[in-house]
Amino acid sequence: MPSQGRRLVLIALCLQNVTHLDKQSARTLRELGFNLPDAEPPIRAALPAVRPQRLMFVELCCGSAGLSFAFRSLGFQVLAIDRASNRHRPLVHCVHLDLRLDSSWTYLTRLVQARQVLLVHVAPREVPWQGRHASQCLRSEASPDGLPGLPPAWQSKVDSANAVYRRTSAFCMWLCEQRSQNPEFMTHFCVENPASSYMWLLPDFVALRSKCFEVSYDSCMHGGDQAKRQVLWTSMRELGTLARQCDNSHTHRQSPTAEAEYPEACCSRYAAAAALALGASHTMPASPRISNESARAAAHRQPRTSRAIVLVDEYQYQVTVPLPSGQELAEQEEKLHASLHPSVAIVLKGKRLLLLDRIAKSLDWPDKNLHSDLTHGFRLVGEERPSGVFPLDPKPAETSVEGLMEEAALLKPLLWEKISQSPDGPHDQALFDITHAECHEKRWLEPPRTWSELEGHFQGSWVPVEQRQKLRPIDDLAENGVNSAFAPCDKLTLRAVDEIVWTACFLMRTLIGRKEVHVQLSSGGVLAGPLHSFWTGDKARARPLVKTVDLKAAYKQLPLSPLDHRLCVVSVRRPLDRQVVGYVSKTLPFGAAASVTAFNRVARLLQRILQEARIMASNYFDDYPILEMTALASSCDKTVHNILSLLGFEWASDKEEDFAQSASLLGVTLDLTDPALGHVKVANREEKCAEVSSAIDAVLAKGVLRASEVASLFGRIQFMEGQLLGRLGRLALMELRSLCSASGELRLGKFERAAFCNLRDRMMSGPARAVPTSPPEGCVCVYTDGACEFQSGRPLCTIGGILYHRVDGKWNTRFFACEMPPELVQSWSDAGKRHLIGPVELYAVVTARKVWRSFLNSARALFFVDHSGVHAACVSGTSRDSV
Fold this sequence. Notes:
Among the domains are: 1-46, no CATH class; 51-248 and 261-285, Rossmann fold; 685-772, no CATH class; 780-876, Nucleotidyltransferase, domain 5, CATH 3.30.420.10. It contains 26 helices and 30 strands. The N and C termini lie far apart (66 Å). Mean pLDDT is 83; it is low at 43-47, 129-136 and 305-321. By secondary structure, it is α/β, with parallel strands linked by helices.
C-alpha cells in the first residue's frame, strides 16, 4: 500500500466470530492486508492462562520517582529510594537510603531474595560542578575515576560518587550470576546515565558491558525538551524499544542545565516495555489489595486522599476446609514442643503449633515463615521478611546490629545508672511487684540478675531495658536503641471499625430491602440469591448483635528468639534495697517495634481461621470485634471460644461481655439499636468524653500547657472528633496542630482557648456519626466555579454553580449565579489577601452546599472544582490560609 506523507494505520485483532462477518466486510479487510482466518480458531489454541503475581519495581536514585509512578499505575508494587537530601518532590513515597554504604546494598540484596522483584533501575548521579558539563571538570577518558590533584573537598565528592558506581556494578553482576545459576530468577537490572558520562569507562562497568544490552536514545524523542543522548545498560531485552534517535522534527530548548527528571512520556513507555517483557512469560501484576481509603469510603467516611475507589471489601475466594483433629497430631505436637528451646517451649506451652500450621497451609495462607518464627522465636533486630499478609513498606534500619552492640557498651552503664538514681515514684513498689510476678508466677521472665551476673551470662554483650513507671509496665526499647536496629518491611492495615460498620450496614440493608442478598464482587461478578425465609419470618431473631473478644496478655503469648534475649533485659530497681536487677525476657516486649508486626501476623491468621468458620470477625491488634445475628449468637460464642481453646490461645474472659445491640469496641461505642435498621451509629464512649473534657477544663483553668503534654492530648481529641457527625471540629484541630511543634510552656491565646472550648462542647453534646444502611441510589453532581476581575481598581468577584440530580429516572437541574458581597471581598483584601480566586472558589462550594442542602443532605454527592487548593481544603476540612 504505497502512500506519501503522514498516514493512519488501523490495526485490528479478530480471533473470534470471523464467520459472522458479512462477505463485503471480510473482503474489504482482506484487501487492506488483514489476514483473516477462514474459520474460528479452536479453543485449545488459546494462549496459556495469565498468572497474576505481586511484582515489584525498585528505582534507585529516584529523584521525582516518575518511573515508580508509571509502574504503580500498571499495578506493580514500587519502592523508590533516594538520599535524604533529594531536592526533587517524589510522586510516590520515597525511602531514604545511603547507597554509598555496603549495608544499603545488603538490604537490597535481601529484598530481591525475599520478594518478586521484576526490575531494579539505577540512575547514579554525577558530582555537580559550576558550569554546564560537570564531569568534564572532574574526570577524563584517561582518568574516569577522577583527575589527580583535585581539591580535597571535590575529591571527597568524587570518591562518594565512585562508591555508588562500584556498588551499582557489583550489584548488577550479582544479578547476572543469579540469572545464570537459576533459570527461574526473574529480577532484571537497568543502569541509566548520559552517553557522555565517564561512568561507562570505569573498569567495573567495562566488565559488566558484555553481560547486558545497550540502549541509546535521545530524550527529546520521548517528550523531553533537550537533545540529550541517554544510554541504558540492561538485562531486559524489551527495553530496546526505547531506542530512538532525534529526527530533527522538533525544536530543542536551550538550557544551561540538563533535564533532571524523566519526561512523563518516557516513564510511560519505559513501564510499558517492562510490562511487555512480563507478558511474554504469561504473567501480569496482581490486582492491589483493598486500600485504607476504600475501607473508609465503604464506612461512609471521607478518605484522607482523593484517589480512593469505592470497592466492596470481600475475599477473592471462599472455600470450606475441614479442621483436622487435634488428637491426630497430639504425638507429633509433643515431640515438637520437646525439641524447642526451653525459653520458647515455656511460652508456647499448650499451643498446638502443628495444627495451626496445617490449617494455615490448607487456607494457602501467604505467611510461609510464620511457623518457623513461632517455633524459633521472633527477632527484635535485623531485616524483617515480608509476610505477604500486609502491604509492603520497607524501611532501612537506622543502625546495624553490630553498631547497636558497639553503642551498648557505652549506653549500658548510663541506663543502669539512670534507673539506679531515678527519684522515688508512687508506683515503684507496684511496678516491681508486677515484674516479680511475671518472673515467678507467669514465667515470662528469667530470674533476676545483678550487673556482674548479667555481664558473665552474656559475656558483656547485652542491653538493659527501662520499664516506664505505670501500673501497666511498658518496656522502652527506643531509649536503649534496639528499635533503631530493626528494618520493618510490612505496613499494617488497621481498619477494623470501618470493616465492622460496613458489615453491619450490609446485614441491616439486606434485612430491610427486597429480601435478596446482592454483592458486587471486585472481580466484576455478582454474588446474589434470595434471603432465607428463616430471617424473614421472625424479626426478633434477625437483629444484628456485636461484641468483642480480647486476647489475654497478647504479646506475652508469643516467644522472643533466644538470639535476642541479650537485647531485652528488663531492668528495675528493687525498692527493698534500691539495687537494680535485670530480668531477661522470654516473650515479645510491648515496646519493641518488631513486636508489632510479629504479633499482628499471628492475629491476622486467627482472624482468617475465624472467618473460615463463618464468623464475621474483624481484627485490631488483640481485639476481635464480631457481628452475629440474634438466633446464632450463642453458637457463634461457642465457636470462637472453641477455636481459640483448640489452638491454645487465651482470651480475656473476665473482660468479655455478651452479644448486644450496642457495645464498646476499639475506643468507641457501636450502636445497632435503630428499630428500623436504617442507621449504624458510632459514638465516643461517655467515660472517655468526660475524661478528655476534664483534661481540657484543667488546661483552660491554668491557661498554660506544657509542650510534652500536647501530643498526647491532641491525639485523644483528634480520635474522638473523628467519631462525631460533621466536620466543624476540623478547623479547631487545625488551630491546635501548631502547638505540637512548639516547646517549653505554652500560654493559650484567644484562638487556642476558643478551639479547646469548641472541641470540648462537641465531645459532650455533638451528634454521633450515623451511617445510613441504605445509601440513596444515584448521585448528585455539583459543578461550581468562581471568577475575580478588577473594575475601576476594585475586585469584582462572581460565583456560580450547577446541580444535576436524578429523580425517578429523570435528570433535574438547578443552577445559581451571582456577584459576591463587596464588603466580604473587601475584608479579604484588607486582611492582606492578594490573590482572591482561592477564597472565591471555596465560597462557591459553601454556597452550593447551603442553597441545595435539601438535595445534598444524606445523599451521595460529587463536587467538581477546578482549584487544587480548594479541593485539598474540602477533602481535609482545614486550610493553612487564615482568610
